[in-house]
C-alpha cells in the first residue's frame, strides 16, 4: 500500500446556501493511493457531499480540493470535466444507469466520453462484465436486471478506464451479502493496483475493513483512522 496522496483537501468548506450552517467545515485531508478509504458518520454529516466535492462535481464555498498537490476545484468547468473523464470512476448509490440504453452501452458511455475507441471500450466492458457475472445481461435494459446486477454493472462502468481514483457512494447499501462482498472486493482489488478508492458507507463492518477511515460529524468536522484493511 502506497502512502502517496493523489487527492486531498485544504480548509474545505461547503454549505448548500449562503448563510446556512456548513455541511463541511474547514476540512483538510490527504487520501492515500493504493488504499481503500471509507467515509463514515451519521446521516446528515456530509458523506455524500464530501464525495461529490472530492470528485469535483460540486464547488466548495471555501478552501480547495487538490489533486497531485495542485488546486483542482477552482479549475474551469471544462478542465474539471476533463480531469474527471481521464482519472475518475464513480459508483452512485443507486447505480444510476440510463434506463433507455442497454447495459453494455451504460458500461461503455463514460469511457467513450473519455476518448477510448469504441472497439476497445466494448472489449474491456465485456471482459469486466464477465468478471462480475453480468455478461449475459449486456443487451438488456437496466429495468430488466436486479438491483445487485445493476450495482455490478455500475462497478464495471466505474472501472472501465482503469481510473486513478474511484469514488463510491453507499455502493453496498441495498445489496444482499453475496453481491455486497463482490462489489467490496472489486474496490479492494482496484486499490491494490495503486489507485485511490473512497467509499461513503453506513456499514460499520465494511468501514472497519478499509485501510483508512474518515469519520464525519454533523458539525462538519472529521477525525481519521489508519489501519490495515481486508
Automatic annotation (TrEMBL):
<protein>
    <submittedName>
        <fullName>ABC transporter ATP-binding protein</fullName>
    </submittedName>
</protein>
<dbReference type="GO" id="GO:0005886">
    <property type="term" value="C:plasma membrane"/>
</dbReference>
<dbReference type="GO" id="GO:0089705">
    <property type="term" value="P:protein localization to outer membrane"/>
</dbReference>
<dbReference type="GO" id="GO:0016887">
    <property type="term" value="F:ATP hydrolysis activity"/>
</dbReference>
<dbReference type="GO" id="GO:0005524">
    <property type="term" value="F:ATP binding"/>
</dbReference>
<dbReference type="InterPro" id="IPR027417">
    <property type="entry name" value="P-loop_NTPase"/>
</dbReference>
<dbReference type="Pfam" id="PF00005">
    <property type="entry name" value="ABC_tran"/>
</dbReference>
<dbReference type="InterPro" id="IPR017911">
    <property type="entry name" value="MacB-like_ATP-bd"/>
</dbReference>
<dbReference type="InterPro" id="IPR015854">
    <property type="entry name" value="ABC_transpr_LolD-like"/>
</dbReference>
<keyword id="KW-0813">Transport</keyword>
<dbReference type="GO" id="GO:0044874">
    <property type="term" value="P:lipoprotein localization to outer membrane"/>
</dbReference>
<dbReference type="InterPro" id="IPR003439">
    <property type="entry name" value="ABC_transporter-like_ATP-bd"/>
</dbReference>
<keyword id="KW-0547">Nucleotide-binding</keyword>
<dbReference type="InterPro" id="IPR003593">
    <property type="entry name" value="AAA+_ATPase"/>
</dbReference>
<feature type="domain" description="ABC transporter">
    <location>
        <begin position="7"/>
        <end position="230"/>
    </location>
</feature>
<comment type="similarity">
    <text>Belongs to the ABC transporter superfamily.</text>
</comment>
<dbReference type="GO" id="GO:0022857">
    <property type="term" value="F:transmembrane transporter activity"/>
</dbReference>
<dbReference type="InterPro" id="IPR017871">
    <property type="entry name" value="ABC_transporter-like_CS"/>
</dbReference>
<keyword id="KW-0067">ATP-binding</keyword>
Amino acid at each position: 500500500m502506497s502512502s502517496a496522496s493523489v487527492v486531498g483537501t485544504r480548509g474545505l468548506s461547503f454549505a448548500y446556501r449562503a448563510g446556512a450552517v456548513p455541511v463541511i467545515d474547514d476540512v483538510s485531508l490527504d487520501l492515500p493511493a493504493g488504499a481503500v478509504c471509507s467515509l463514515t458518520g451519521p446521516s446528515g454529516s456530509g458523506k455524500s457531499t464530501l464525495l461529490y466535492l472530492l470528485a469535483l462535481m460540486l464547488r466548495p464555498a471555501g478552501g480547495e480540493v487538490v489533486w497531485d498537490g495542485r488546486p483542482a476545484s477552482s479549475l474551469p468547468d471544462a478542465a474539471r470535466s476533463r480531469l474527471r473523464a481521464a482519472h475518475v470512476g464513480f459508483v452512485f448509490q443507486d447505480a444510476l444507469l440510463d434506463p433507455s440504453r442497454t447495459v453494455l452501452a451504460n458500461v461503455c458511455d463514460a469511457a467513450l466520453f473519455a476518448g477510448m475507441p469504441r472497439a476497445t471500450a466494448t472489449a474491456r466492458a465485456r471482459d469486466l462484465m464477465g468478471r462480475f457475472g453480468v455478461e449475459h445481461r449486456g443487451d438488456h435494459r437496466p429495468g430488466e436486471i436486479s438491483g445487485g446486477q445493476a450495482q455490478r454493472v455500475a462497478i464495471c462502468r466505474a472501472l472501465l478506464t482503469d481510473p486513478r481514483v474511484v469514488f463510491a457512494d453507499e455502493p453496498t447499501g441495498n445489496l444482499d451479502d453475496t453481491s455486497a462482498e463482490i462489489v467490496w472486493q472489486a474496490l479492494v482489488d482496484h486499490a491494490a493496483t495503486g489507485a485511490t478508492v473512497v467509499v461513503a458507507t453506513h456499514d460499520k463492518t465494511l468501514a472497519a475493513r478499509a485501510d483508512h477511515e474518515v469519520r464525519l460529524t454533523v458539525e462538519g468536522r472529521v477525525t481519521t483512522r489508519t489501519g490495515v484493511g481486508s
